[in-house]
Fold:
Amino acid sequence: MIIVKTPREILAMQEAGKISSTALKLAGEAVEPGVSTLEIDMLVKKYIESQGASPSFLGYNGFPSSTCISINSTVIHGIPDKNCIIKQGDIVSIDIGAYFNGFHGDNAWTFPCADINSEAENLLDATKESLYEGIKTAKVCNRVGDISSAVQRYAEARGYSVVRQFVGHGVGASLHEDPNVPNFGSRGKGPRLCEGMTIAIEPMINAGSGEVKVLDDGWTVVTADGKLSAHFEHSIAITKDGPVILTNCGPDAKN
Structure:
């Protein structure tokens, strides 16, 4: 069931989104050679809790950390570890959620560590732009498939593959709500978008095949061919005036 939010609830979600996206910006600033992913996780947890919020991911279905940090060929759900050290040239995907006053803010970004090669840079640019292509179509009376198609067409036109096994989702009082928001699909298909819907759009785009596999820890998702992957995400609200980004204080803040 799709849960439509009131204007007051959307304002509350913006507060959660502000905390989550500010935490994401802080995490990105910490991405440097020699830093462990656990250090970044602890930094994020401390900040979120300092704002009177709690990390959405910590304990979610048993997940052991406050953030998902995924490097290079790891797509999503990387578990922070003191022995996982970031190196120059890595691309580091960080996914963060914050729960505040009854609502979640959910966002992700892939950060370059120092200088990265052109292959990685082009993948990051294409994945980020595919996110914004999807957001642009998130309008009242359009359908979820319009978002999905926009992401897919943009990424595939540039020679990349879309991960199909994992998708975006509704977000609100629960971290994951209806509807699913795939990064592939057909225009004019899927649930109709209406005012008050809140969703997380999150392209996961691979440099090679779109195939992925889950490691033995039950969480970490990697590309099947070992090639690079990038992940960008915003939580948004559907309004009569167009899409509103609820996580807009992060690395690419518009104000």
In short: The first strand starts at residue 54 and ends at 55. The domain at 7-245 is CATH 3.90.230.10 (Creatine Amidinohydrolase).
